[in-house]
Amino acid sequence: MIQLHDLQFVPFIDEDEISIAIDEISDRLNKDFKDKNPLFIGVLNGAFMFVSEVVKRFKYDCEVSFVKLSSYEGIETTHKVNELIGLEKDISGRAVIVLEDIVDTGNTIEVLSNILKDKGCNTFKIATLFFKSEVYTKQNTIDYVGIDIPNKFIVGYGLDYNGLGRNLTDVYQLKSSKMTNLVLFGPPGAGKGTQAEVLKQKYDLVHISTGDVFRYNIKNATELGTLAKSYIDKGQLVPDEVTINMLNAEVDKNTDAKGFIFDGFPRTEAQADSLAKLLESKGSEVSAMVALEVDDEVLVRRLLERGKTSGRPDDADEGVIRNRIKVYYDETAILKNYYQKQNKYFGVDGVGAVQEITERLSAVIDKF
Ligand code: IMP
Ligand code: MG
Question: For strand 72-73 and strand 76-77, is the pairing parallel, antiparallel, or unpaired?
Fold first, then answer.
């Protein structure tokens, strides 16, 4: 992985593959332009490496010139193509081959084509090392394509990100910004709510508590809330699909989130599979299941203590407390196993001061 300015890039196409693509283009150019004394016009800045490689492989008389046109700022095309500079030669009637490093939307190529036609050159061909055919919107034929690539921002082999990366001999693609998605577990009394609140602030995550999501949807009588309520009213379990659709809506509300804390979901393997699919559809995944671990006796003591002031009846009876803890472990065991198989289970000691526990959780989260 490499860092250029504020962004990270990962290897995408190596030099050997690029070299083979240039060999192929050059073979065709040698055939098509033999004895035509073509004029290669390289489009600066990006095309300098490509031009040099093509020209080295061209075996007959030829001339080389460069022009400059630019349409990119940062990683986004600006759709404004600046004027052409650098074409001093008379090109009317000449065999011209435009050499581009990359053709993206095609704005640059279209403008350049029009300028060349204005200058009386109607027979030029276009060769590009990389071509994002998926996003190409223009009519101009791209005659020679080195490598067709998906719509990703790339650097290297002449291509830059705000000036950097042109010297790289391999091509790298922008690393997709990774989300931190946690599935948070903790037995009753472990302080899960408190930690979720702290982590949410610290890592700028969105806390999705399934209970809250249900209550919100039902209270506001959303389509999904009304549907869920129809099952609840009949005393039936809400189908996973309804729940996952609610969570999906929640995730979609926060498209620029750094990640999510899922709380109360998944409860079953099937739900864990659904969550994996949901996140996959957003180009992401569950980073980890993090479970607070607290000894049963400590929990019982804590909850009985809390019961004295909270007035919650389920905190007052030791038998009820022990049963809640048992239910928690029965449910959690399945998911612990599920995420352990993916090396995504992390148990964290949940005994200590709030800050201490946060530090332990952070040690896990900082790995992602
Ligand atoms: P177009 O006008 O949208 O076809 O964009 C063409 C110009 O944008 C190229 O000549 C490059 O200078 C720049 N460009 C397009 N895609 C990329 C990329 O993925 N990385 C770096 N520069 C790019
Ligand atoms: Mg360019």
Answer: antiparallel
- Among this protein's residues, is 94 annotated catalytic? no
308/328 Cα distance (integer angstroms): 22
Which residue ranges have their beta carbon within 6 Å of ligand 1?
43, 46, 71-72, 77, 100-109, 153-155, 159
Return residues with CB closer than 5 A to ligand 2 (ion): 43, 46
Of the candidates 304, 342, 346, the residue with the CA atom closest to the CA atom of residue 324: 304
81: pLDDT strictly greater than 60: no
Q: State the catalytic residue, choosing from 28, 229, 267, 336.
A: 267
CA dist., res. 97 & res. 354, Å (int): 68
User: pLDDT for 147-200, tens place per residue?
Assistant: 999 988 999 999 999 999 999 999 999 876 678 999 999 998 899 999 999 999
User: Edge-to-edge strands of the sheet including 2-4?
Assistant: 2-4, 7-13, 171-174, 154-155
- Per DSSP, what are the bridge partners of residue 103? 131
267 catalytic? Reply is yes
- 28 has catalytic annotation: no
**pTM for the model:** 0.57
Atom of ligand 1 nearest to the CA of 106: 4
Can you give the three-state secondary structure of the chain, one letter per residue?
A: CEEECCEEEEEEECHHHHHHHHHHHHHHHHHHHCCCCCEEEEEECCCHHHHHHHHHHCCCCCEEEEEECCCEECCEECCCCCCCECCCCCCCCCCEEEEEEEECCCHHHHHHHHHHHHCCCCCCEEEEEEECHHHCCCCCCCCEEEEECCCCCEEECCECECCECCCCCCEEEECCCCCCCEEEECCCCCCHHHHHHHHHHHHCCEEEEHHHHHHHHHHCCCHHHHHHHHHHHCCCCCCHHHHHHHHHHHHHHCCCCCCEEEECCCCCHHHHHHHHHHHHHCCCCCCEEEEEECCHHHHHHHHHHHHHHHCCHHHCCHHHHHHHHHHHHHHHHHHHHHHHHCCCEEEEECCCCHHHHHHHHHHHHCCC
